[in-house]
Amino acid sequence: MADVVVWPPDYYKFVRSIFKLMARNQTSPRTWIGGTSVYGPHAQFWTNRLTMAPQEWDGQGQYIMNILDSLNGQANMLRIGDPARLQPQYNRLNTFAGQAWSDSTFWNDGTGWVFGAVLDLVYAISAATRGSSTIQLGGFRGSLSRLLRRGDLMEHRPNGLAADTPSLYTVMIDGNTNAAGQMGITVNPPFRQGVAVGDTFVLTNPTSLFRLVDENQAMPEMSAPRIASMAFDLIEAL
């Protein structure tokens, strides 16, 4: 069984990225009128093309290269997300004040409790079957509009545990919460496995499982003085 390597959250230091949900269909040519006809099956999968910021080799460069080497080419899987969508858009566009503890103190780094942001985790309040595209979620703040927005990402974790198969979805319509902090949403691709009531959905740093597209990825290019440049292409490990 393939090992899963988790990309460290502190190392999303990319200068370019393409994170795209691709589609593939079987088609047949229309001989008399030109073009093609789509007849299935239909497959959707995430692709991830990443270019690292130049790294000092004796700083983080060697460490990053070791992470990529541990994939053993295409043998192992990498759990990683979209560098541009590590938070819901609502959080990225708003600033939330930190609140102190009851004794007026803050955390050791000077920050406080953050109120008002979309939470890191929410949960399913309705079940969904494999292949369906709608779900009811709870755990949000109540009576707010567009708390999740078209294009936001979320990761399904059955029983709160990271799945051993890709479980990353994009929100298809803006979502509003009712007074109880509940929301109905539509996702794409359709659910790849069933969702049970109480299952967790991750909204902060949602990830999927990827493999390198071939054995020639992530070659470090060294330049003086010991600066490493790296890029690699990933495809979802369906």
Can you describe what's shown?
By secondary structure, the protein is mostly beta strands. The protein has 2 domains: about 1-85 and about 205-238, Phosphorylase Kinase, domain 1 (2-Layer Sandwich), CATH 3.30.200; about 85-205. Helix content is about 10%, strand content about 40%. The chain contains 2 helices and 17 strands. The protein has helices at about 55-70, 90-95; strands at about 5, 15-30, 35-50, 55, 75-80, 100, 115, 120-125, 135-140, 155, 170, 180-190, 200, 210, 220-225, 225-230, 230-235. Strand 2 (about 15-30) and strand 3 (about 35-50) form a beta hairpin. It starts with a strand and ends with a strand. The model has no long low-confidence stretch (mean pLDDT about 90).
Short description, anyone?
The chain has 238 residues and is mainly beta.
